[in-house]
Design goal:
2 domains, two-stranded antiparallel sheet, 10 strands, 9% strand, elongated
Length: 321
């Protein structure tokens, strides 16, 4: 099993959770930029999106987490703002950032939607994986006791979730020496393998849009299964809120995969007024080309006529011996 002690500070100075979240955002944006650049487009554009997506995403992620764990903040409501202590919901952040992506893309019609979705999926998988290190550092997303070889053996440190089966008659407070599932650790490994798999598909030159679909399908299925291990999350009809999100994500990803495999992208590369200018320029160029062709034809005809006149004039002369 994996020896486990929480590490809320890094080098005794930096807050580990906040550091990992920030590092995940930066690494994800960099990977997204590289993918867009590799497809012949302006990857620097992604940084403006990453900035706004990070702001809205963090706010949405925190809001959904607090709504899902209200009892945690009843005694100290101001702790809602203590982001460095952990407590972010992936699907909350996803729902908050999605409208940002829609508005941002609408303002940049020159960028391929499919390339952009692939790029952000690559960045999101890597960034979320790094972020799960932060979740591990503060002790959250815990599961029940186990002897599974990838389970963790708790040796000490402050835990965001200090007990298992919190709020139920089966609640057990965690003590050193206990072994249990840590789904943040499992998800880190899952996301790293998924990221490598996406890079392999990228090198094979799959159609734009496929990476986003595969990322959504794989993450939805694996996260749905992992959430059954969590013992401190509220459930409805036996499912966590994230599992309902996984069902929606899986459906959308399957639909998207079918779409990208059966249709070509209709890409509005230019704004309407720019497109009209291009059309006008093209018409003018075509007219000029036609005019030049006619002039060349006339010139060739004149040269041919002159050559024929010279030829017939030379044939009419008498040669004296």
């Amino acid at each position: 099993m994996i020896p486990y002690q929480t590490f809320p500070t890094f080098l005794g100075v930096f807050n580990t959770f906040g550091l990992m979240v920030g590092l995940g955002i930066v690494a994800g944006a960099w990977v997204a930029k590289r993918h867009i650049d590799a497809n012949g487009e302006d990857g620097d554009l992604v940084f403006s999106f990453a900035w706004w997506a990070a702001i809205f995403g963090i706010v949405g992620a925190r809001l959904v987490w607090v709504l899902a764990h209200p009892s945690t903040y009843l005694d100290d409501p101001l702790s809602v703002f203590a982001l460095w202590e952990g407590g972010l919901s992936f699907f909350g952040g996803f729902l908050a950032a999605a409208p940002v992506a829609y508005v941002w893309l609408r303002r940049r019609p020159e960028l391929s939607r499919r390339v952009f979705l692939d790029a952000t999926s690559l960045g999101l998988v890597l960034g979320l994986g790094i972020g799960r290190i932060g979740c591990t550092s503060v002790g959250e997303h815990l599961g029940g006791e186990t002897d599974f070889f990838l389970g963790v053996n708790y040796t000490g440190g402050r835990l965001t979730e200090p007990s298992l089966y919190s709020g139920t008659p089966d609640e057990v407070f965690i003590q050193p020496g206990m072994s249990f599932h840590n789904t943040a650790v499992y998800e880190f490994f899952v996301l790293m393998f998924l990221f490598v798999g996406l890079l392999v598909l990228r090198r094979r030159g799959v159609r734009p849009g496929v990476l986003a679909a595969v990322a959504g399908i794989v993450y939805a299925v694996l996260r749905f299964g992992l959430d059954f291990l969590r013992v401190n999350d509220n459930t409805t009809l036996g499912l966590t809120g994230a599992q309902f999100g996984c069902i929606v994500l899986l459906g959308l990803s399957l639909w998207w995969l079918r779409r990208v495999l059966t249709t070509d992208e209709r890409r509005p590369d230019l704004a309407p007024e720019e497109a009209e200018d291009i059309v006008d320029d093209a018409d003018a160029a075509e007219a000029e080309k036609t005019e030049n062709t006619e002039e060349n034809d006339r010139a060739e005809a004149e040269e041919t006529e002159e050559a024929e006149e010279k030829g017939s004039g030379g044939g009419g002369r008498s040669v004296k011996a």
